Fold:
Amino acid sequence: MSTVLSDRPRLDPLALRASFSQFPSGVAALCAVVDDEPVGLVASTLTTVSLEPALVSVCIQRTSRTWVRLREAPRLGISVLAAEQEAVTRQLAARDGDRFAGIAWAGRFRGAVLIDGAAMHLESHLLREIPAGDHVIALLAIDTVTSFLDVEPAVFHRSGFRRLA
Structure:
């Protein structure tokens, strides 16, 4: 049996995370009604992929208990959260408790859930998942889009919320 030695240095996960935080991103809530209750998670990795067909992607930790439930929903609502929704973002990202307590939301066609006050709403469905290390890349087909151009989006940078200048 032979051993292959890598000439690449092992990356420190904490240093890598700090480095990745240098890249500002938006904040999106992926939500749906599952088993008659709203279910959702927050992601800062929403990325536009294609205009034709309309596609976005999001990266989700393989250990996510929420994604296991959401991925089975026929439609997913994607709310690009607003700058004023930091508290909503933190609540939807919480590991425990009722993530939707006190949060205004609307149920849509085939179970998609959209958060009121967001900068943009997308209704989507899961097209495919692609394994990627300790995450999966969810490729989502966009069925509808509504933008609220007077609402500033949340920006997540260096583990905190920022405003656009």
